[in-house]
Structure formats: C-alpha cells, structure tokens
C-alpha cells in the first residue's frame, strides 16, 4: 500500500488519471456510465469487510466492530449514495477495474487487521487517539459530502461541464472534496493507530493529492 502510494504519486504528478474532467472520450477505451462505475468500483470496500465479519468466528469486541463499521460507513456513502447522485462523465472501464481491485484489497486489509490482529484494551474507549480520530474522521466526512453537494449543484440537468466552485471549504482550498477525504482517513488512522490504516491514509494522499494539484492548476 505504501509502495503503491509512492508510485502513484510520482506518476500522477506528471500526468493526471484519465477520468472525470480528464477523460478522453475520443479514445478506444470502453466507457461505463459514471453512476454504475462509481458503484461497482466502491462497493467491494463495503462488501469484503461485511463478508469477513459474517464468516469469522468469535467475539471480535466492541472496539473492533466500531472501527470496522466506521470504515464501512464511508464506503456505504460512496457506493450507495454518492454513486446515485453523481453527474460525472462516463468512466473508462480499465480505471474502474483498477478501482475495484484496490478497493477489494484495501477492504480485506483493513477488515483482516481489525478482526484478527488488532488488540484494544478496556481503557481504549477513553483514549485520546480514539476520540480525536473519530472527531477528525466525521469532520472530514462532513466536508467531503458537503463539497460533493456543492460540486453537483454547479451543473444544470444534463450538464457535464466543470466550473469553479464557491462556498463551504472551497473558500479556503480549491479541492475541498479531496481535502475532506484526506482528513477522513487521517482521522481514521489516528483512531485505530495502526500501520494498515496509516498506510491507507498515505495512499489516499498520494492518489488524490496530485489530482487536487492538477485541479488547482
């Protein structure tokens, strides 16, 4: 995950990923409608942890379930709500397929760690890292959802053009939706205080950070 993040950062700083505003509709790539693509791409990160929870024996403890359901909450919103509301352009099939693989691997990584490797003590619920991390996570999630709402409302029905957004966190950063998601996963990493979650937060920064940079330009 960390190595993948470094490789993505190097590549994406040189040339942006060809989806959304950067998609080449004149190319030979097979295209998938944006709503279907986002649903199929994000849903594995929701279903894989749920499947592991159902098929794993034993009492996993409240702490493990709390953090895993927090992880699933993000991907429920992305796959079952965001995907139905998005007004984006058609999505290249190969990029969607890459997203399916990444979300499947990460869903397994986070769920396997929490269910089989993580150890939470009785004092964990009063731990500053948990409380601080959850506050940061939900703050980032709120920023992300609100920023997506602003972006959707920039367009009239049938429009797919891009405009400069105003309001909310867009008054302070040009990529407020990306900023919100980065804050989310940094908060999740702080709450769980584990290598897998910090690795995913690092990967998120490396993947959508360059995209935010190109958007700003």
UniProtKB/TrEMBL annotation:
Q: Which GO terms describe its molecular function?
A: 3-oxo-5-alpha-steroid 4-dehydrogenase (NADP+) activity
The question of whether Zinc-finger is a record keyword is answered with no
Matching entries from Pfam families are given as: Steroid_dh
**Domain annotation 3-oxo-5-alpha-steroid 4-dehydrogenase C-terminal: ranges:** 90-217
Q: Where in the cell is it found?
A: Endoplasmic reticulum membrane; Microsome membrane
Q: Note whether Membrane occurs among the keywords.
A: yes
**Topology class, membrane:** Multi-pass membrane protein
| Spans traversing the lipid bilayer | 91-115, 124-145, 185-208
Q: Which reaction does it catalyse?
A: a 3-oxo-5alpha-steroid + NADP(+) = a 3-oxo-Delta(4)-steroid + NADPH + H(+); 5alpha-pregnane-3,20-dione + NADP(+) = progesterone + NADPH + H(+); 17beta-hydroxy-5alpha-androstan-3-one + NADP(+) = testosterone + NADPH + H(+)
**Task of the protein:** Converts testosterone (T) into 5-alpha-dihydrotestosterone (DHT) and progesterone or corticosterone into their corresponding 5-alpha-3-oxosteroids. It plays a central role in sexual differentiation and androgen physiology.
Q: What protein name is recorded for this chain?
A: 3-oxo-5alpha-steroid 4-dehydrogenase (NADP(+))
Source organism per UniProt: Danio rerio
Q: Which gene encodes it?
A: srd5a2b
């Amino acid at each position: 995950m960390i190595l993948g993040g470094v490789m993505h950062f190097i590549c994406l700083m040189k040339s942006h990923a060809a989806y959304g505003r950067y998609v080449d509709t004149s190319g030979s790539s097979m295209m998938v409608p944006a709503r279907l693509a986002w649903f199929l791409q994000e849903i594995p990160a929701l279903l894989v942890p749920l499947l592991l929870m159902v098929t794993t024996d034993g009492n996993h403890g409240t702490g493990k379930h709390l953090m895993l359901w927090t992880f699933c909450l993000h991907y429920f919103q992305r796959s079952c709500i965001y995907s139905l509301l998005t007004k984006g352009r058609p999505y290249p099939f190969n990029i969607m397929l890459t997203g399916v693989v990444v979300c499947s691997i990460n869903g397994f990584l986070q769920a396997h760690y929490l269910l089989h490797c993580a150890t939470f003590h009785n004092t964990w619920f009063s731990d500053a890292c948990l409380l601080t991390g959850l506050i940061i996570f939900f703050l980032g999630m709120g920023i992300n959802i609100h920023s997506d709402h602003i972006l959707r409302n920039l367009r009239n029905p049938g429009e797919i053009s891009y405009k400069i957004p105003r309001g909310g966190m867009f008054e302070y950063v040009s990529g407020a939706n990306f900023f919100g998601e980065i804050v989310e996963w940094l908060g999740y990493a702080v709450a769980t205080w584990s290598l897998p979650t910090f690795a995913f937060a690092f990967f998120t920064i490396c993947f959508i950070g360059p995209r935010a940079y190109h958007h700003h330009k």
